[in-house]
Every structure is written in structure tokens, then in C-alpha cells.
Amino acid sequence: MMFAEPSAASPRELTWLLVILVGMPATAARAQVAADLGPRDDLARVKMTDDRPLAIRSVRLGRNATPTFETVELIADVAATYANPFDPEQVAVDAEVEAPDGSKLVVPGFFFAPMRSETRADRERIVPDGTPGFRVRYAATMPGSHRIVLVARDRSGAARSLPLNLRAERGSSHGFIRVAKRNPHYFAFDDGTPYLAVGENVCWSWGRSPLATYAAWLKGLGGAGGNWARLWLSNNEKGLEWLPAPTPKAGSGSYAGLGRYELGNAWRLDEVARLARENGVRLMFCLGIYGEFRDGGYFNEGMWVSNPYNAKNGGPCARPEDFWTNPEAKRLYKRKLRYLIARWAAETTLFAWEFWNEIRETPEEVAWTAEMAAYLKANDPYRHLVSNTYGTSPTWELDDVDFTMTHMYGKAGDIADFTRMIERDTRAHLRFNKPYILAEFGIDWQTDDGKWDRPRSGLNMHNGAWAAVMGGGAGTSMLWYWDGYVHPANLYRVLTPVRKFVDTVNWPAANFRPIDGIRTEYTRVPPQRHEDLTIPATVEWGGASSDVYTVLRDGSVRGEPVAMTIGNPSRGNRDELPTKLTWHLDMPEPGKVLARLGDVCTKARLRVTLDGELVLDRTLQAGPEGKGPWKKSRFDGRWNIWVSDYAEDLAIDVPAGRHELTFANVEGDWLQIRSLTLPRYRTIQSPPLHALGLASDSQLLLWLHNTASTWRAEHDGKPIEPAENLRVTVPAPDGTWQLEWWDTFRGEVTRRETVRAAGGSLAIDLPRLDKDVAVKASR
What we know:
GO molecular function, one term: hydrolase activity, hydrolyzing O-glycosyl compounds
CATH topology of the largest domain: TIM Barrel
Largest sheet: 10 strands, mixed
Strand content: 35-45%
Mean pLDDT: 92
Number of domains: 4
Shape: globular
Distance between the termini: 42 Å
InterPro entries: GH, Ig-like_fold, MAN-like
Radius of gyration: 28 Å
């Protein structure tokens, strides 16, 4: 989920998983999880030590012949002396492979315990089902004979097996997913087949039957054409490493502490990967979350108290920030990466490794990311894609970070239409010359999108998906609320027409680039009218690219995105937040401008000026709920401060004409101005059309969106007025173009026509546009 990065204190943007559980209070939800999926005595009985002399007693291939890119297991009976089978300094089992072309690689092995799933008392239980031992998973990437030697090591030395021969024949798999060679803004499989990610998050499945739940989710997603999903591997039902219970923030499973991995959860992740493979879905493994390195938080999501890296729990780190630089912490983390590589890297289902969800970027964290990404590239035999969130230039410019990502949410329904934000953010990230994915997306970080989508139309999901793809992203926008919204409402159907469309385009080969200079106009101009314009502040924390904004009569804002939080210049880090926001307005008539006052931290003093004259000077306090004019409050124990939400409209009389309006904070900590509403400001003479698209030398892709078609209009019961008598003019080479008009809700071509471009422009007259349409033009 989206999270606004803090300094001494800041807003927390996270819908925490325990709150999502059937509306259950967090304490009750955690207790339920502990009862359903907590420590299990049967897993504790799995033998994980050995004191025998080193020997490879037997080794065999799961099969002697295989199609390329399909996983084959080497099953080994290895005797050795070790107290921890996950510590490669005590025992390491690897396969040395010589491929048919003479190239050589080392494939790490891993400790494995056979498991099965049982249903007991109406809940899933993972129980041992055989003798534990060591295995190697290997995927042959080329046809021919692969010579494999197993090597086992302990502190006494090394043992080698006789060679095994695996015969590979070319199979139907396209291989692993890479950054496309022909266009680094997109992905492609090993064989060059394009891959554009269409999907959603399915991060956890807390509850009584995780595997059955994942089976339903992945079947629904894959059946609708989805091909991408994101998993969290933190301390949930798929986690490997956490502090054993009892502990204040217990995880799901029989955890054994730092450097020892939960084999039942690992087996469950094997099964989730199998389910994804069967349904054609690729998985991004997000290995950890920011809450592991803090306590408290808006939803009490902090878990440092139970983090096994915490020195109070016997770990190497006295403080959370020590994790990034402590040599022992890095050594132990690389050990976990080795296990992850050994067990899952041979899966073509694995799309990418993502180190963290929404970790705060610091110089130390960037250096850590560079080191760990390099470790993955050096030790993952298949060199899977690597990324992280959050990131800015220092992260995205790392050689071993393959693609960029962001997360995007509104707050309390403040953003009616995300499409321009998606287009802007996509373009901003394409400058790194890497693929970009909007990896989390939703109307409101505070609550399920279902609150805002009563008819369950999925219109925001629809608009976000098309805007992301046609804005130049390497995938759709990945909706967050999968369990309480997408699945119950069967909104997988939103993805089907997108998948149908993207499958008709060779994304890497076409060398697409975002189109600049698209013009929209009326073919028959309607009477001029005006409507109120609300401009949301979308940068909740930190400095935006500008703190000066000019609002044009068509409703666009120069200088956006707009900063929300205004700091006092005397704060400890004065460069962290803007201290004044300046607005240039051109009022068509006199009226009251409404500034929406949001959170206040501890204390602030708001000064508002109009053309240099003071019009408002107000001291704002924060405190317990019910003890002041604020609507609600929260106490942040980490910083020992109150943050109070005023949720109040401040009215400022502004005459007609051009004016400068400023908002400054001159005392205390910080305050928020969440939005600005300008009365009857937007001139409805410019077409209600957002046109965006991509161009190559021989193809144009356009998404034409009626700007009245938003989730907010549906929520408010406001009829979506059709857009009529419209024309778009697109820069294009002269000549004849063949147009396909795509119904974006059915994924079908509704008509074809031939048009000519002249003078470097292609003019296209639109049919009546109820919501949106896609156009594919070829020459």
C-alpha cells in the first residue's frame, strides 16, 4: 500500500492487512490468524540436523528428459554434519551444470521437507509427508544434453556425485521474462515474445484456507486474461523467517528465528507458484515490507518489536536503520536470498524479485539495494528481473535494478480521475530508459475501493488500466484491493478487454514512444459555460517538483503535481517540505475559493495572502479527539505527538480577474491543504476529452477518454454526459492509415476505416463517446 515517507512525524498511508479481514479489529484478527495458521507441533518435528560423515548417498533426476524451461528436480540423499541446514557455511549442496554449448553454471540447492495440505476443523493445515533432504531445481534453457554433477560440502570438505545427463528438447514455453532488447521500456520472453503485464496484487491470503483461496483468485485472474500478480513474502502464510511465537507481532507459521526458514510456508509458496503456472500468471515476489523496520504506525503496522534482526530479539541490529549497513545483517540476508534463488529461481512463473514494499529510500538503503541486486544477478542462474519500492533516481539508475515502479492512491475519495496522474508519472519514469509499472493503485488508501464503487462497475480500475498501458507503461495499473473488492465482484472481467487488445501489439518491436502535441477540438462548438473546479493535492509528503501553480481556464494546472503538506521553516529538516504554496488564478467572476484544511501535526499557524494582503492568520492546534475543532485525531507514540484532522473548508473571497493566492505555515510542525475548489472556474468550451497514446514509425495507439466518465460521477449518481462532435489531431507521417476502433469494455473491434494524414497530422473525427474508446492506426 501507498505510504507517505516520514521525518519526525508524517501521515501514514497504509491499509493494513489485519484491518481488511472481514472488518475485524486488529487484535481479534491477529488472534484468529494465530489460531488458524500459527505454530504447528507437527512441523517442529521435522529433523533438521545431521552428524554423519559427509557423503552423497544417492542422487537422481525427477525425470531424465524434459522440455526446455520446465523445472526438473535433483533429489539427493546427503549425509553431512550440520546444526542448521539453511546455513551454507555448515552445509551446502549445489549442482554444477555444463550446458550443450559448453557454458557452465552453478545452481544452488536447498533443504526441503515434503508436505501435504490437510483440512482439520474446517481449516488448512500443512503437515510433513515424507523424509526431508536436499534438492536442486534446474530449468534447461537450451535443447541438448546437460551434464550435471552434484557437489556437497560441510566443514570437513566436499563430495561429488557421478555425472547425470538431462536431455532437453525444445518445448512450448517462451522462457523467462527479460527487459526487451529492442525497446527497453518493455518486457519480452527469452524467445522474443512480447510480455505486457496485466494483473493485480494478491499479496496475502490470511484466513483458514490460504491455498483454496489462492486457487480461486488465480483461476479468476488467469481465466480473465490476467498474466501478472504480486505476492508479499513477509511474515504471512508464505513467509520464511520471523521471530517464533509468542511475540507481540507474531507471524503466520512455525517460525524458528533468524537464519532458519519455515518449511511449511515454503511448501505453500511452491503450491501458489504451481497454481499461478496452471493459470498463466507470472508472480512478482515482494520479499519484505517497510513495517518490519518500525513500530506503531497509522494502523499499528510496525513490527520491529518482533523482527528477528532486532538486537532485543538476539539479532545484529540495535536500530532499524542499522539493517542497511550491519555486515552480519547483510550476510544473513544474502543467506535468505540464496535459499529463495535455490527454491524458486528455476520457475519461469517468477516474474521478478522485489526487495521491499514501500521502504524509505536513503543513501544507506540505496547502497544496500545495489549490493543485494548485484548478489542476485551473480547467483540467480536465470538472472530474473529485480526492482524495489520506493525509489527515485539513485535507485532507478542502478545497473542491476531492471525496472521502475510507483504506487498511487487517493485519500478519502479526493481524486475523481487518476488518468492524467498516471500519464504524467509514466512519462516521468520512462526517462530512466527502463520499463515502468504502476504496481499498486486504488481510489483510497484508507479503505476498500468497494466503498466508492457501489455498482461494482470497476470503472476506476478500467480507466487506470487503459491509461497505464496507453501512457507507455509496461503493464496495467495493478489494483490493490483484490480480496474484498475484485474477487467478490468478479472484476477480473475489467482486464479481459485490455488483454485482448495488448495481445495484438508487438510492444518491443514497434519502438513506441508517448505522443506529444495531440490536439482536441469540437467540430461544432457548444455554448460556453462554467463549472466549479476542484484541484486535489496529490503529493502528500515531501517536496513536489514545484510550489507555484497556475490554474488555466480549461482546468489544467501548470506546476502540478500539487504538494499537500506545508512545513514550518524552523522544522529540523527545512528542505523536506515546502513552507509556502503559491497559486496564480484567473477568476472569471468573483467568488469564494475553498481551501480544504486537513491534518495538523502538533501545532501550526496558517497565513493566507491575496495579492500580498493578509486575509487569514489562524493558529491551529492538535490534540485528543473531542478536545478541539478537529473532526478526528490519532496519537503517534513513535514521536509522542498528536495529528488532528480538521476536514474543514476555509472560504476566501477572491474578486474576478488575475490574482496571487498564497498559503504559508509560520509556526509549529506541519499542516495540510488537501484541495482547492475554484467556483465556476473551468470553462466548458474545451472538449471534455483526455487523449493519450503511443507512436512508432508505422503505428499509432490512442486512448480517448470522456473526462466525465469517472468513478466519482458514478458514486455521486451524476449522469455521464456523452462527448459529441469531437476531433483529435495527432502528429503522424503523411499517407494512408488504417484505423481500428476498439470497444474497451468488450475488447472487440467495432469498425474499421481508412484516413489520410497530411501536413504531418492525422485528423480523426470521433463517434459519440459515452465513456472511452481505443484506436489502433497502422500504415
